[in-house]
Amino acid sequence: MNEIATDIRPEAATDEPFVVFDRVQKSYDGETLVVKDLNLAVPRGEFLTMLGPSGSGKTTCLMMLAGFETATHGEIRLAGRSINDIPPHRRGIGMVFQNYALFPHMTVGENLAFPLEVRSMGRSEREEKIRRALGMVQMEDFADRRPAQLSGGQQQRIALARALVFEPELVLMDEPLGALDKQLRETLQFEITNLAHQLGITTVYVTHDQTEALTMSDRVAVFNDGVIQQLAPPDELYERPQNSFVAQFIGENNKLPGTVETIAGDACTVRLEDGSVIDATPVNVSEPGEATLVSVRPERVEFKPEVTAGMEHTVEAEVLEFVYMGDTYRTRLRVAGDEGFVMKCRNSLDQERLSPGMRIRIGWDPRDARALDRV
Amino acid sequence: MTDAAASRGASPLDPHAAVAAVGGGVAPTGTAPLRAADGRPLKAALQRAERVNRRRAFLLVAPLLLFVLVTFLFPIGNLLKQSIWNDGFVVHENFATGTRTPIMQNLGGWFDANPPGTPANEEAFAALAADMAQLRELRAQGSVGTRINYEVPGTRSLFTKTARRADDLRPPFMEAILDVDEDWADPALWAAMRGASSPLTLNFYLAAVDLERNAQGDIVPVNENRAIYRDLFGKTLVLSLVITGATLLLGFPVAYLLATLPLAKSNLLMIFVLLPFWTSLLVRTTSWIVLLQSQGVVNDGLVAAGIIGDGSRIQMMYNQMGTVIAMTHILLPFMVLPLYSVMRPIDPSYMRAARSLGANSFTAFRRVYLPLTIPGIGAGALLVFILAVGYYITPALVGGADGQLISNLIAFHILDSLNWSLGAALASLLLFGVLILYWLYDRLVGIDNLKLG
Ligand SMILES: Nc1ncnc2c1ncn2[C@@H]1O[C@H](COP(=O)(O)OP(=O)(O)OP(=O)(O)O)[C@@H](O)[C@H]1O
Ligand SMILES: [Mg+2]
To answer: CB-based contacts of B325: which residues, under 8 Å, 6+ apart?
Structure first.
């Protein structure tokens, strides 16, 4: 990192995480809080993704970190130092925008030279760095093109190279792949994570595409309504959602409303609305009688008699629809009056094909059913 | 649309092409000519479709084309012709009957027979006397005198006086005519008559840049106290540049504000920018007079506030300053609108990107925002400059003696002195100047970079 243009330097004597949001609040209009009491710590080198529905305050958080918005309350610290009063250009943070924001009147080379020129870097050093940055994104041959002469994916690569060329330690990306098609997105997801890990930079990435979040990140912060709903590594997020918003937002999910019947340690039973009883793990419930929403992943639902036989509780279900999806079968069931219950089975040689109208009994390991808050 | 459909019909899916391909066992392209669905050759079908489109497009613009032709191109052509063609000395037109009679034929013959610079001899005066008699008969001496008066001031009376006594002239004519008025001996007058005897002349252009022909027919600068046009062109240029600069300085921040405000607010502000368009030009100009004259609101206010003494009121009206102030105000929207239309779509993320890359706000503005507004600056400046160069009414009202622009003089020649040819020459020079400017702009910035709205 070039010392001239940034006020952020690695502090020797702090073991505080690299980026810290400390009780940050943000309001644009003085009436509603867009970000409510945000506490977040990102260690050096981590790839953290902010995931959440539109309007949940992700961009706002990123803009506060970059310095384009000021926190209404609270403090943001970078390398142990409060950056509330440091203007954006002295924060030394690389940034990739959704629309790339490549300067249209400059060539690719000039775009990359820009951050180096404002740091008054010498010509030869500049060229060396530009060459290296373009090499990182495999775009060496495009230095003389204008952004308008590049495809969307190429522009995104250049934007990435530009954000990295001045060797920032922290890079922010706001839905950088939002405008690309699926295949390109997947390639670039891979490239971005690789690059981030190779260079050891800390990355804060914003997306509302959950697959992207799950595949790229070390940890994911799920935002809703200006609050982090859960902050966890992808597998934990998927398998152990802390509340029904996360369960619903990440991946496909079956939700069964009911009331807690008994609760004992890390097991409970829940009575569904039609009177049947199921097993679950209590997450957000503590007492019998509490209303709850039980979340079960479609691929964890079992229906084969030889498996369900050993289970304490099973529920009756009626097959409504059977869809062949190639690698899986997707079966829609009516369970406890709900017609949207989905079960996914692997497509193997011995897999039984159900047909609409059949009545089966389904069940699951109690650890796969999570009794969450009822919203 | 139609040709898109036609070319789609030409794809290899075309049944005829497919048959040819199967039958001949070769690729369909390049062998048989492609045919449209109805069997006609594709090229002909395409041309036909395009012809219909072209005709439709032409019919749509035809009324405007006609209008422009009649009211704009024809007058401009006429103007250009007037500036190099004046037959007031060789043809007399009787407006009552519409008949055109050749005049000054004898003198014309003498000019043809003798090279420029030949002093007028008895033969020449004889020809003049004969022509004078004809003028008297036709009562054309006034208009002929006026024609020569354009070039040698104070000679109109010479013609009227001499024509009145044309019948009394007896040989030797030289003596007789000089007896009527000895000014006839002036070689400049003869040079002017020689010039005027051929209707096709560049003399008006020469006059428009303060040049004239001397008795020998050489081009020389006019007498210093008659040289006004070059200075006036220069002043027009300088004042227009000043006005353009002032509108840019004042308009840029406004356009920036308009472009960055939320739409609802910027629409409101835009009304204020456009407000000048809604009031009459005369009202606006006169209100500047009310404000800025030496007994006007501004001066009164300054005096009342004790900033200036009553005796030292600032002259802001009836001079160049008045012209600059009033025209800057009037032309401001023409700068703001193109700037706004260029700035509005500039994504704020460019500036953010620049700042995140380490540029302070000034550098970000200078290296990223400003270059992106160049098309707007160019368009606005060109528009304002061209309008300012040709502006007439405001300088006429508030310019006083020293704030007059070239267009005021053009108006003078067209309306008062009735020297249309000189007016046309001045106006043509202005037109050429603007065209050259346009060409320069195209070379430097590129016309396709122009964004007017
Ligand atoms: N400049 C602003 N002025 C006022 N309100 C704003 C501004 N920017 C964002 N908001 C509001 O703040 C809330 C959060 O916006 P933000 O852009 O952070 O959402 P987001 O999570 O990035 O959404 P998306 O996924 O759609 O980008 C929204 O309700 C939005 O309307
Ligand atoms: Mg956003």
So the answer is: B288, B292, B316
Positions of chain A with pLDDT under 70? 1-14
- Report angle CA A133, A119, A18 to the nearest 5 degrees: 70
Summarised one tens digit per residue, pLDDT across range B11-67 is 444 444 433 334 444 444 455 667 777 777 888 888 888 899 999 999 999 999 999
User: Does A32 sit in the ligand 1 pocket, CB within 6 Å?
Assistant: no
For the domain covering A19-239, report its CATH number: 3.40.50.300
Instruction: Decide: pTM greater than 0.80.
Output: no
pLDDT tens-digit map of B284-314: 888 888 988 888 898 899 999 988 888 888 8
CATH 1.10.3720.10 at B229-449, yes or no: yes
Q: pLDDT: is B175 or B19 the higher one?
A: B175
B-side interface with A, Cβ within 8 Å? 347, 349-350, 352-361, 363-364, 367-368, 371-372
pLDDT of residue A8: 52
CATH 2.70.70.10, domain A252-372, yes or no? no
Under 8 Å CB-to-CB from B33, ≥6 apart: which residues? B41, B42, B43
Structural domain boundaries in chain B: 3-82, 91-224, 229-449
Beta carbon of A56 within 6 Å of any ligand 1 atom: yes
Q: Which residue of B has its CA nearest to A96?
A: B353
pLDDT of residue A124: 94
Q: How many A from CA of A62 to the centre of ligand 2?
A: 9
Provide the pLDDT for residue B10. 40
Mutation for testing the B interface, residue in A69, A86, A89, A129 having most B CBs under 10 Å: A89
Bridge partners of residue A346, in order along the sequence: A328
The reply to whether ligand 1 has any atom less than 6 angstroms from the CB of A178 is no
Kindly provide the ipTM of the predicted complex, given to two decimals: 0.82
